[in-house]
Design brief:
By secondary structure, the chain is α/β, with parallel strands linked by helices. Helices cover 27% and strands 26% of the residues. It folds into three domains: 1-173, no CATH class; 175-268; 293-305 and 312-382, no CATH class. It contains eleven helices and 25 strands. The strands form four sheets. The protein has an 18-stranded mixed beta sheet, with helices on both faces. The longest helix is centred in the N-terminal third of the chain and has 15 residues, at 5-19.
Length: 382
């Protein structure tokens, strides 16, 4: 899955459960072992507290949901835990302890679990009875951590991917080295906790940080020598003017920046995705990285023609490009870019339906052109 897709996937499935027809599960139905084994195998099992805060539902990937008594959830985990590989538990307020009981049951019975996502609760990991040896991907959202009885690497000894969103952290549970961790996603959590994770996990290759200050980017440049992907999807506050240097980052994405220009240098950058309205120095970043192979630029007004043409000279190894167009975009600019960019293989143009007819008549024969319903033009070399 792509970046943050687990969070998006979970939200999608929640909408399915709450908006689609839901079927009631009775205890006798769980006796049909073959049926439930097929439903569970290789799918995401989502256990969810309904909006009335008193009933519960389960769903499997994008299938319709099932209303279920909470006690039957424990039966389901106990009897079919060995077939569950992906599990999400979404209980925002755990006043009755159901979230904790579900986690305890999962740790005892879901021995082949690979992915665990938890939304809600407080100190829920204190209920882990046995380590999740096979879990490689873990996510927490809207949870509180004040005390813990075990370290994170004891509970998840083989974790490779960690996702943390909107957490309240008062202890040092994330101040730990997770030796197999190479993928970290954080958004809207305490910066000290993020900083500790970065400092302790020098082996990270993928880092996604939302709603942060630039000091964490600087910290990453210092402590993550083999980082390959850096994504700053939400507002990044700039409070320093010093140059930030990354030696091995090949993929960089940045959206909104406030407080100034981010002075960032790469040695091996190959892919850049940015919003030029908030990252105005994107073209200088391109100029400083002549080996760039993939470029995507979003903007409200469309990328200026002069910048598109300048890429012919400053980014000679560009293979794929993706631009937002504006009312000013000229067909001649696009055609010239395609003709003179020696390495270009794919070009995506967004919001360009106004020039579609003329572009079709002037585009060289070596290119295929197709259009989607969303006013996106795909141009690819034959």
């Amino acid at each position: 899955m792509k970046v943050t897709s687990f969070f998006i996937f979970i939200l999608f499935c929640v909408c399915v459960v709450t908006s689609s027809r839901a079927y009631n599960i009775k205890d006798t139905q769980l006796n049909n072992r073959d049926l439930w084994q097929k439903k569970i195998a290789n799918k995401m099992l989502i256990i969810q507290e309904n909006s009335d805060k008193s009933t519960y539902s389960i769903s499997f990937d994008r299938e319709n949901g099932y209303r279920i008594e909470i006690e039957l959830v424990y039966v389901l985990l106990e009897q079919f835990g060995e077939y569950i590989s992906k599990l999400a538990i979404l209980i925002e307020r755990d006043s009755d302890g159901h979230l904790k009981k579900a986690i305890a049951s999962a740790s005892q019975h879901c021995e082949h679990l690979q992915y665990l996502f938890v939304s809600g609760g407080k100190n829920v990991l204190n209920e882990v009875k046995k380590p999740f040896y096979n879990v490689t991907s873990v996510g927490f959202q809207i949870s509180e951590f004040e005390t813990h009885s075990q370290s994170l690497n004891e509970m998840f000894p083989n974790i490779q991917r960690l996702e943390l969103m909107s957490l309240k952290i008062k202890d040092d549970i994330f101040n730990v080295n997770l030796p197999n961790l190479d993928h970290l996603e954080v958004a809207n959590i305490d910066e000290k906790s993020v900083g500790k994770l970065i400092e302790k996990n020098f082996q990270l290759k993928f880092l996604y940080m939302g709603f942060i200050r630039v000091n964490l980017v600087k910290l990453a440049s210092k402590h993550l020598p083999i980082l390959e992907t850096l994504i700053l999807p939400y507002n990044t506050e700039i409070d320093c003017e010093h140059e930030i240097h990354f030696k091995n980052v090949k993929h960089f994405e940045i959206n909104q920046v406030t407080g100034g220009l981010i002075n960032i240098k790469f040695e091996q950058l190959e892919e850049l995705k940015c919003n030029s309205d908030y990252f105005p120095n994107w073209i200088s970043t391109v100029e400083k990285n002549p080996n760039l192979k993939k470029l995507a630029v979003e903007t409200r007004e469309g990328v200026e023609d002069e910048y598109i043409l300048s890429l012919i000279e400053v980014s000679r190894y560009l293979i794929e490009a993706n631009f937002d167009c504006g009312p000013h975009t000229q067909v001649e600019t696009i055609v010239k870019f395609l003709k003179e960019s020696k390495q270009i293989q794919k070009l995506q143009l967004n919001y360009c339906r106004g020039i579609l007819s003329e572009l079709k008549s002037k585009i060289p024969d070596i290119w295929n052109l197709r259009v989607t319903d969303l006013d996106v033009i795909f141009i690819e070399k034959k």
